[in-house]
Amino acid sequence: MRHGAHFIPPPLLSPSPSPTVSASVTAGSQHPMLVSVFLALFLPCAGMSAVFIVYICLLWYATNYRTDNHSGSSSAVKPGAQKGLSVSELEKLPKVTGKELVLGTECAVCLDEIEAEQPARMVPGCNHGFHLQCADTWLSKHSVCPVCRAKLDPQQLLDASHDNDNPC
């Protein structure tokens, strides 16, 4: 110890007083905190739910009224100018077997393998092959190749049934 400095022990802690009126006052002051925590959790959830409901309603509206509105020019749907091939145009496409396909034996329409002896249809120009029924179904609705989206013109079917010009 230095020059007359004495060690003073820390004061003893006394036990806390028993809960009385002051405890009820502090419990009442926690009520606004609970309300604010509840609102902080509830309001964002309610807001996100409202946005989700509006989104679902807009999707429903768009799917139900998009197909019914054929005459409106302000429709968000692409114009129906892309018509498929006729039956006579489909017959002009080359028919081959699975073993004669050049660019693989997987049908991009049904995603199944084309067996060696199965009839297949080859799209002129890009030489992509498909099951006969898959190709006819697709090309009767769309006039493009399902793989590379090369446009099939009726003039191209007349001229180039066996050409190897690859537009891909």
CATH topology title of the largest domain: Herpes Virus-1
For the biggest sheet, the summary is: 3 strands, antiparallel
Task: Note the overall shape.
Answer: elongated
Question: How many structural units, i.e. domains?
Answer: 2
Radius of gyration: 38 Å
| Arithmetic mean pLDDT | 74
Identify the strand order in the major beta sheet: 1-2-3
CATH class bucket of the largest domain: Alpha Beta
Query: What structural category do the secondary elements indicate?
Result: mainly alpha
Number of helices, counting only DSSP H or I runs of 4 residues or more = 4
Enzyme class: transferase
Subcellular location: Membrane
Family: Belongs to the RING-type zinc finger family. ATL subfamily.
Domain RING-type: 107-149
Question: Can you offer a commentary on this structure?
Answer:
The protein is mainly alpha-helical. It folds into two domains: 21-68; 87-159, 2-Layer Sandwich (Herpes Virus-1), CATH 3.30.40. It contains four helices and three strands. It has helices at residues 21-66, 87-92, 132-141, 154-159; strands at 95-97, 119-122, 129-131. It has a three-stranded antiparallel β-sheet.
Topology:
Elements: H1 21-66, H2 87-92, E1 95-97, E2 119-122, E3 129-131, H3 132-141, H4 154-159
Antiparallel strand pairs: 1-2, 2-3
What are the salient characteristics of this protein?
2 domains, single chain, 168 residues, mainly alpha
